[in-house]
Specification:
- With 495 residues, the protein is an alpha+beta fold.
- It folds into 2 domains: 303 residues, Outer membrane efflux proteins (OEP) (Up-down Bundle), CATH 1.20.1600.10; 109 residues, no CATH class.
- It is built from 14 helices and 8 strands.
- The strands form 2 sheets. It has a 6-stranded antiparallel sheet with strand order 2-3-4-5-7-8. Strands 1-6 form a two-stranded parallel sheet.
- The protein is elongated, with a radius of gyration of 42 Å.
- The protein starts with a helix and ends with a helix.
- The relative contact order is 0.13.
Amino acid sequence: MKTIVVIAVFFVSIVTQNARAEQSSHALSLNEAISIAAEKNLDVRAEFYNPAQFEADVNRNRAIYDPLFSAQTAYADNAAAQSLNGEAVSNSQSFMINSSISQLVWSGGTAALNFNNSYNSNNSSTLFQHYWQTGLGLSFNQPLLKNRGREVTEANIRISQLSKYASMERLRTKLLTTVAQVRNEYFKLYSLREQLTSKNVSLELARTILKETKARVAAGVLPAMEILNAEFGVVTREKDLIDAEKAVSDQQDVLRLLLQLDPKVDVTIKDVPSRERLDFDQDVAIKRAFSRPELMEQRRNLELTELQTRVFNNKLKPDLSLNASVNLTAVDRGYSRDLEKIGTLDTPGWSIGLFFSYPLGNRAAENDYRKSRLKVEQSNLQINSLEQTIANDVRSALRGISAGYKQIDVADRGVLFAEERLRAFIRKNEVGLATTKDVFDVENDRSVAKYNQISALVSYNNAITTLWQTTGELLDRQGIRLDENEVNRLYKAMQ
């Protein structure tokens, strides 16, 4: 009974010391750890840059609607043509300044406004020897078959958008994996700290047994051999305690790295794993899992491939385009008079026509289309395969939860039996019916039972994490929201 009292007193002192240690260190709650990881984890932060880069691609491809201004100037001096007798026939010089502004429209057509000016000088006797020629025109070119329509015109914009959405789903997958890892590593630290406490209790018990064994050997009640057994038990448990302390320190480093915490911070666990029974519906869980981010990424990629297929199908058509233009022209010796004639609208002109071209065989466009169709079929098969894999993962996770909950009850009963057995052997040892080695063997069984209890509780919570990760609901469960505006802000911050 004296030994039992000593154990109880020591256990209370260990708990008190741990409580004081927690007060002097950083007690980290599970939700706090997850929030810190979502904000500071380097892998998550690095993944944010991918959708931001696709946002740059989206805006780059929207530049097709930026008006295009062009200007051209040139001077020409034509050498005189020679007659049979070597005399000059004609000589001319010209200087021109042309400008235009064009705009692509959603239908695939291009509208352009042209303003052309030229000054000409020559030695002809039948024409103006010095005159200005000015032209103002509006033209429009519209594809009628190939390259016609908004979808084809904005194909690269839409491809960039879909690529960005797929990248956002990859970001969600990375965030989902990181949150799951934080939960597992958090509970692992809890497990190792609990094992450390158990090792401390075992070592203190061994020291108490050694002290009492020496006293009983000195009194002639026990043989001297029992001291060696007791000392071996103490040394074994000291070694176990050192290993447990190292494991706790190593696990703290793992958690600190995930959360990007100061290496000097002593991380302690504030929350304990849940023992609450989790009710579930398999069909509902599988249906929810079909919205997992990696599956959504595959669907985005399928949508992108289908868009490319429609564009390639359009490329199979002949190139038929409508060209229309209206213009005003004027010729006069003075430039100001030239402009006045343009303003009177007295010299209008117009034209309309069709342009047709088609590569015989058209093998390039045909094979682009065939390849794109193959990609669509391949993507559908990959999505179907992933859905079946996800359904199996959900069923496996649900079985893991069911088995894990049952293991908690078994482990709890194992600890009760092991502790009762240890008390019985301590009493036997006190009356000489059990050796010191017997007591240590039974105490080892108690340590194993305690380890199984801790492991069962942590494994059950890890199984819950696995289920929530498999169904894709872990982020919602932990209150983590991924806002696309954060990605856009990162893009805008790059000046």
